[in-house]
Structure formats: C-alpha cells, structure tokens
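#struct-pred

JT: dropping the chains for the assembly here, can someone run the whole complex?
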Amino acid sequence: MRAFVEGLGHGLIDAVAKLGYATRLFLLLLRHSGTAFARLRLTIAQIHFIGNYSLVIIVVSGLFVGFVLGLQGYNTLQRYGSEQALGLLVALSLVRELGPVVTALLFAGRAGTSITAEIGLMKAGEQLSAMEMMAVSPIGRVLAPRFWAGAISMPLLAAMFSAVGVFGGYVVGVVMIGVDDGAFWSQMQNGVDWLEDVGNGVIKSVVFGLAVTFIAVFEGYDSQPTPEGVSRATTRTVVSSSLAVLALDFILTALMFSKG
Amino acid sequence: MDRKLTDLWVGLFVIAGFAAVLVLALKAGNLLSFNFSETYQVVAKFDNIGGLKVRAPVKSAGVVVGRVSSVGFDDQTYEATVTLAMDRRYGFPKDTSAKILTSGLLGEQYIGLEAGGDSDKLANGGKIKTTQSAIVLENLISQFLFSKAAEGKQDAGAAPAGGAGSGAGNSGAGGLTAPPSLGAAPGMAPAAPAGESKGGTGGAAK
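RK: done, full complex below.
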C-alpha cells in the first residue's frame, strides 16, 4: 500500500518535472532559434526532409478523405433534397476540422517519429555530447532547424490536404454522381468565409505543427540513450502528439467557432 | 549541386502550400465576393429578423447588392436594427422596401430589396421605412391552427341552427359537384401519366 502511494506521488512529481523540463527546453529552443534562420540551409534541408517527403501521403490521404466525404455527404444530403450543399459540406469539414487534424495526425506518424528517432539515435551515439564538446549547441544546430522546419511545413501540408480534399469531393460529387457544378461551387463560396473558416483552419494547423514538432523534438532529446529508450520515445511521440492535437483541436474549436 | 536541387524542391513545396491556401480562400471561400470597393450604410428596422446573420447577402432582383454589416436591438421600440452595407455602385430610391427572405426551403436568410418610385436616392445613414419581417414557421403554424380552430367553432356554431341537415347538405353538395369533376377526370387522366413519364425520363437522365 505504501509502495503504491509512493509510486503515485513519484509518478506525479515525475510528470510535473517533465513538464517543467519541456518548458525549459522550449524556451532554450526559442533562444537558439537564431541559428535555424542564420544557417537557413539547415532548416531548408529539414523542410525538404519533413515537408516534401510527407507530400505523397498527405495528398493521397486528402484525395481519399475528399472522395469519402463526397459519397457520405451526398448520401445524407440527398435525403433532404439538398445535395447542392455538398460542396459546402465538403469544404467546411475539410477546412475547419479534417484538414488540420488529419494532417497533424499523419504528420506525427510520418515526420514526428523520424525526428524523434533521429535525435534519439544522435543522443545514443553521443553525437549531441560531441557537439557540446566542440562548443556547438545541439539545441541550435540539431533541434531548432527541425522544430522550425516542422512548424513551417505543417500548415502548408494541411492547406494542400484541404485543397486536394475539396477536389476529391468535386470529383465524386460532380463528376461521378452528377451534382450540379455551379451549385457545388456557389454554395461553397456562399458558406465558406475566407477569414473565419480558411484563416482559422490555417491558425489551427500552425498550432498543431508547433505542438507536434515540439513534442517530437522533445521526446527525442529526452529519450534514454539506448535502443529501447529510442523506440519508447518514438512511441511516446505518436501517442502524446496525437492526444495533444485532439485536445488542442477541441480548445481551438471552442475558442474560434463557439460564438453563434 | 545537390544543395541547389534541394532548394528547388523546397521552393516548389512552399509554392504549392501557398497556392493551396490561395485556392481555398478564392475558390472555396468568399475572398473575391466579400469586399465591395466602397459601401454606404443603410439602416432598416424589423419586428423579427428570424435567423438573419451578419454578412448575409442583400439582394435586389436576385443580384447581391450588399451585405448585412451589423444586427442590433433597439430597446425603445423593441425592434431589431439591421445595418446594411450597400455597394456604392447601386443606388436605391428612398421608399425602397426590405423583406427578409429565405433562399430555398431550408437555406440561409437574406434581405430582399424592392425599389420604390421615389426620385430621391437612399444616402449614407439613410433609413428603409417599409420592412417585412422574417416568416417564423412556428407563428405560421399557430396562425393556421387558430384559423382552423376558428372555422371549427363557426361550424359548431352553425350546426345547432341548421341541425343535422347542414352537415348532410355539405356532403350532398360534395356529391353533387362530383359528377362534373368526374367528367373532367377522364380528360385529365391521360395527361397525368404523360407528365409522370416525363418526370421519370427526366429523373433517369439525371
């Protein structure tokens, strides 16, 4: 019993200490961000690795999510005789929710894991310590470029996801099912506000990008320098960044769209 | 060389991302149709605005000529005060009337303007005097029910005077009018299936 209570307290203290450590690392990361922009090549190489290589999975997923939205939306809407609103349904659900959220989840799986594993292995191979020996800050040289590359790539990927998804909804709704072309677009344009909907979707994806990439960088930097430790850190990245994205999504949606 | 290639691909990636945002804002959103270059404000007061929202379109003859810029409440007259931002290109006479209409059966609500005959135009800060409120479905149904109930009462009131005969007379009249309508029915009958088959082919073509 005593061991249980002790374990509980220990776990809690650990969790709070980890949060504090994460905050300290975040501030250090911001302070060392100058390196990421002074040596832009490092960041650009990371954008290439994180962004460009995620493009295929994002675009293909976006297309299929658009297809499915078109089919499901049509099935429901035609019951009420308002299948013209299909464009509105597809665009709003993509721009407001599915675009940022699904992209962030895929991004955590595709890019977050590789960031964590790379940094974790660097730590296990004592490369980070070697950098410190050479008076090179590993936070500025390794962490900051990855962090900013992820934060820049994520909104761009989310926007592409939404755009491709709208196209997918168009293909299924208009080309295959035969919803009226003009009504599809005009309903969409009437209902989707560029600032309220598109802008807030972009803000969401920026926040998700920052959160997912920071969690990935942090877990890699914080991992135990063993093969097992790195694999655990990679798993933790996916689990905590997915949960963080969903929780943040709820908070952001409540802030942005609650006013009637 | 390898570096340059990376730069190129990253550049393409960034361009594609911004293009996607632009497409969403322009093609899916209303960035193009939202901003009128110059507007003038007109105020209209309604007893009930129903589900009218800020930025709902203001249409005249079906063309969007402005947007609702704000909705307020006047606690002196207990009316809704709706401010319309009208496109400066379109002028309207002073005695223009405004109605709250619904696009489609369940669509969003908008304001319809009908021009009057006055030679003076509405100016910035002008007021639209003649307005017609939104139709609230519940009110409509209750009116209908009340009028039905009133009819029922009238019938009930008439029944004691006319006795059972009035009811019989009604049904008799129904019976009497039936033959002419029956006579018309054969003529109508071929027409109806033709219309139906038309509708059927129309549906198939869709």
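JT: nice. Chain B has a mean pLDDT of 73. The radius of gyration of chain B is 29 Å.
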